[in-house]
Amino acid sequence: MLSRRVARGKEIAPRLPERRGIDAAPRPPGRLIWLHAASVGETISVLPLLQALATAPGTVLMTTGTVTSAALLARRLPELGLEGRVLHRFVPLDVPAWVARFLDHWRPDAAGFVESEIWPNLIIACRRRGIPLMLVNARLSARSFAQWQRLPCLARTLFGAFDRAQAQSEADAARLRRLGARHVSAPGNLKFAAPPLPADTTELARLRARVGDRPVWLAASTYQGEDTLVRRVHETLLPAHPGLLTILVPRHPERGAEIATLLAGLPVSRRALGEDPPEQAGIWIGDTLGELGLQYRLAPIVFVGRSLVPEGGQNPLEAARLGGAVAIGPHAFNFVEPVAVLRAAGALTEVADADALAAWVDALLRDPGRRAAMGRAGTEAASRHAGLPDEVTAMLLGLLHAR
Fold first, then answer.
1. In this structure, are 189 and 47 located in the same domain?
2. Which residues bear the site annotation Transition state stabilizer (predicted)?
3. How far apart are CA 119 and CA 102, in angstroms?
4. Is the pLDDT of residue 361 over 90?
5. How confident is the model at residue 402 (pLDDT cuts 50, 70, 90)?
């Protein structure tokens, strides 16, 4: 299975031993706090925690499960001055012997699992070793809650293994308590406290000059099945908005060539090939890693994908934090609280399908004042809970007294 994932670009071959709990690097001396996040979104949300934890004595070990999250940390840790103070490793797969090797090597003094990372063997092994555990920014959808309710004994064992849980919302907290979690609080969602996505200022200035004052909108984090819908929106808008630039950033950048084929017949360029946006009306595929902050700054009108198909959506706060007017589809069930907050602030619109999305983009292209007002409201709403990282860091450090 791991070999197949390497072939698909889902694993890094020289780092496969990490997935088996094998690591040649020695454990640093002193205290070690371990933080685990699944992928990019969860990793971005805990960057402020890494900064705060790195100021305390000892070492921070950050594990993730995806190549994209590893690439993100390889870039962001040096930018944040955390290189050498925060170590990144891939999390071992949930195989008892591999988990045991990982824990025997790193011997964490405390551990935080981010959002919904519930791995039975990993959790049980930590508990048996007396490692204090915390659920960080915990999220549990109604659908996941119903599934866990079918396994009440397992749920009580796993959720009860955590010494405390910091939930994203009161609804998440209530579900966690019913499944057996202890010491649950809901001080807020760390995604509201994340820093704005970064961008290369020189490249941003160059691309802004190239785009100029032409009409532009962005479809971000699109999923399979949405790309043809973006094409339809582009073709619908083009007669009324000559020179229209549509920026399409797929959730998985490796799909860039596939998407270009789907868009055949239109002027299309790909960022991964070093190509700039088309000079005339067309679609620019942003099929690179770590440049969403650049693309959000180029487009004041943003559709956040994985939401016109039943995949749960992506985080709309990243676009709102950078002043974008935001739309999502009807399937953003993984981001209920951020959607509700932005909607209440007048910063987000829900669209039912491609036709509704086209109508919304058209309306905002025609009304710069409304577009700017949505952007200002989104920036304000997405910046609440600025002090939450320090509060959650204190909770994590408090686990050390539980040993």
1. yes
2. 115, 191
3. 14
4. yes
5. low
